[in-house]
Amino acid sequence: MNLITLLQIILAAGALLGLVLAILLFIRKPNQLANRLLSLLILCLALQSFLIAFDTQEFLEQRPQLSRISWLLPMVFGPMLYLFIRKLIARNPRLFPIEIIHFIPVVVALFYLLPYFIQSQEKTIAFLSNLDASRHNDFNLIRQVTLFQVLFYLVYSLKTLAQYDKRIVNTFSNLENKKLIWLKKVVYVLLAIFLAAVLAVTLNNWYLPVLTELYHYYLHFLIVIILVFWIGFKTLYQKQIFLKNKAHATLSQDGETYLNEFEKDLIIPDGPVTEPMGVPGLPKKYRKYTLKPAALQKYYERLNAIMETQKPYRQSNLTIQELADMLQMPRQYLLYLIHEQLGKSFYDFINQYRIAEVQAFLAESKEHSLTKQELAQSAGFTSEAAMEAVFMQLTGKSATEY
């Protein structure tokens, strides 16, 4: 069995595995929209894998129209991966009509290739009689556009994940199952693979010992399939990040009705604003507003009182919305207070109280019967490992060293 035959078997098996994985994702309820987008992406990859596995003269002469489908499918990979990531990390995931623009390139390419699809089968077979020559006909242009399009969406996906990282530290006090480090690593590897593919295409007149062979034998595509399938398997076990809770209202959702009660706490800047300022997350017309000093002081005192008396940080999954509800203030005001007055993220703010409680307990009780796990949970950490990680991050020492 030669290398080509082995790759055909692997790609065909990958197509069947992709079909099963796509079905499992499609019927899974948590993260439903993101799962279904990923399911469609995996179906496209499975079909592409099948077409590459049987990319032979004999197969294409019997089914000539399929010879150009494999040119179009890769143009949906980038947009589908990006939209999957967007919906996975969205607070209220849904599709918007404007998002159809991501698929304009594939529609343009489809119309460009339309004469080929509608011509007679005899003409198509005659065109395919020289398979190598037919592959180069218009393929180089479409291939290069596709590669750069995928690169664009991979970079854009990394930017989206970076923005998400900033958002979760101002939303959650516990980041377990929310950081998506695994997804970011996969996107970086995909980016490296496609950069190598771009280099191989750009220097196609030169023989590059590793890149040329990877590209010639579709090994790069095999790696892409493995990585995307791995994303699929990880997503099957990914918990929903933003749980819906109708009891929690946000300022932007309730609009003017909710804002009227707190509008007296806002001040409008005099003259044009030259630097970013204002309360984050407010409706557009209020984004240049800031909180009055008296309001800041009032909310600051209320925050300190709640933290000292009710100790909400002991709730391991406390969110900024839940704390804002306890304080009877808009979430955006609380975020502004923690950011501007205390110079911290919500995650750091809550965990400093947890660390302080552990430190106080250890200082007062040199000998105690609590295990590290019990001590961590009593202070609001989900586990001993989480406590150790936060200890190291905020104090530079582990809990054991302390």
Mean pLDDT: 80
Uncertain runs are 246-257, 271-277
Decide which structural class fits the backbone. Answer: mainly alpha
Oligomeric state, counting identical vs distinct chains: single chain
Continuous helix count: 19
Q: What fraction, in percent, of the residue positions are helical? A: 55-70%
Number of domains: 2
Write out key terms for the chains shown.
402 residues; Arc Repressor Mutant, subunit A; 2 strands; mainly alpha; 19 helices; sequence-specific DNA binding; elongated
Description:
This protein has 402 residues and is an all-alpha fold. It has two domains: 3-236; 251-395, Homeodomain-like (Arc Repressor Mutant, subunit A, Orthogonal Bundle), CATH 1.10.10.60. Helix content is 66%, strand content 1%. The chain is built from 19 helices and two strands. The protein has a two-stranded antiparallel sheet. α2 runs antiparallel to α12 (219-236), α5 (74-88) packs parallel to α9 and α9 (139-168) packs antiparallel against α10. The longest helix has 30 residues, at 139-168.
